[in-house]
Amino acid sequence: MTKEHKTYDETKLISGGRDPESNFGIVNPPVYHASTVLSPTLSDWRNRDPMKDIVYGRMGTPTQKSLENATALLEGGDKAFATSSGLGAITVALMSFTKAGDHVLMTDSAYNPARSFCLNVLAKYGVETTFFDPTIGKNISSLMKENTKVVYAESPGSLSFEMQDIPAISEIAHEHDAVLMHDNTWGTPLFFKSFDMGVDVSIHAATKYIVGHSDAMLGILVTTDKHYEKVYRGFRSSGQHAAPDDCYLALRGLRTLGVRLKQHQENALVVARWLENREEISQVLYPALESHPGHELWKRDFLGSTGLFSIILNKHYDDTSLGAMLDEMDLFAMGASWGGYESLILPGSPIRSATKWDPEGTLLRLHIGLEHVENLISDLDAGLARLKAASKP
Ligand SMILES: Cc1ncc(COP(=O)(O)O)c(C=O)c1O
Predict the structure, then answer these.
(1) pLDDT, tens digit, for every residue of 230-251?
(2) How far apart are the CA of 337 and the centre of ligand 1, in A?
(3) Can you name the CATH fold of 9-255?
């Protein structure tokens, strides 16, 4: 690619992390399985640089580096680290920047295991966590303490989908010399450019859209040169390892991320708009809808919306009624995770400590897959009819 041309994301998705010329012309990087990496001479052994060279399987194979380079390129970061899972990426990020006596500010809408890690693990090592209202914006300044080292955001929030003003939070965090971490799993490196928005460490559960086929567990941390060394030390000390086959699957997933996300977005918007008009539903929590309270922030900061959102039903339904709807769904299946090609549906209950979560009805989280949207709508239509019939007094 000549320098005079802007390299578009679609092109980065295809060329990032690939070097066919050094692999016999083979299009995809090979899968390297490795623990031991041999040094030809003593001098080579003595001079290995684990931050640059391939030195040991746990610290990364060429397959892993390809994935890391491609992801960093796409998101606009300098360096990336692949971990065994998305939660692994979260824990490495938090451990890399905290020590006993430090304080973490975490959004109240964070993915629940991230909260649990702070409360059950970091707390044991003398790190205190305060949860904040996801819509706090600049007012986060009132919560910053002398010892606040990390501000942890997730926009939109898990299950409840509040949008956060990431640039405003970044400005305040940086004024106080704290780093801003952001779980960008929903936005992906394609639809949310973390480093243009002031994020220092971007966290991805690559298990979701990057892998995209529900068949591998993987996390990726992306950061800047400024913070690279700290993340590297945390990553290296944690024993994290990304399996070579899973890195390969994530690289393969990345190549089609653009076309998949366009379709997830298109389908999700049609389904979300259709759901908005149903009497059984009181709210559709999808930031791309004009009715979403965070819509303006989404429009300002994101380049697209993906396929995950929640709905609030018009009342609280018991499991008999919910079962009547969910057990018989044809295309929407029940199961943890999201970001694969298939549609999913699950009831959920956000855990809160700093803000109130008291919706008028049951929350269902939907992942809108790549099936034909008309089929998805008829599946939901039939499901809502069963729900209504089962809950008749
Ligand atoms: C927003 C978010 N972050 C992180 C994770 C954790 O990813 P993993 O399941 O790969 O550990 C998840 C998983 O559901 C998630 O939804």
Answers:
(1) 999 999 999 999 999 999 999 9
(2) 7
(3) Aspartate Aminotransferase; domain 2 (3.40.640)
